[in-house]
Prior knowledge:
Elements: H1 2-26, E1 29-35, E2 40-46, E3 51-57, H2 61-66, H3 75-92, E4 102-104, H4 106-113, H5 118-130, E5 135-137
Parallel strand pairs: 1-4, 4-5
Antiparallel strand pairs: 1-2, 2-3
Helix pairs in contact: 3-5
Amino acid sequence: MRDRRIKEGRLIQVQIVWELKRMTVLKRYVLRLFISLKYITANVVDRNNGRIIATASTVEHSIKNSLECSRSCNAKAATVIGEVLAMRLKVEGLEQGQGRGIHVDVNKEVEKKGFKNRTKVWAVVNALKNHGVKVVLEDNEDNPSRPSF
Length: 149
């Protein structure tokens, strides 16, 4: 009787581990944004390893010098960050996210960054999509923060 419970317990543990691995594989690459009053940074993170795959920021001199963003960054700067990030993902060969895409939870990003920064969040996401990066949006369609085009 005891041996049977141990075997069933191990089977449940194996199933849980398999489910966790499956969930992390489905959302392997995730876009993370950091927006301050002066700077915008976008990172694509590999959730399996916890490593940054590609990054772009207005802190970089080459990007900073090309922008007219002296005291505050605007949606134009966010678009440039999205374009640079898309180019860097293409160089790494990850513009398709290994077939699964780059996942973005727009609601979460807008909540974290504040309602005023939603145009910057959408500017980065749209720039990635326009430059051929497969972006998987993790929001529902009746999202009030989504701009209407």
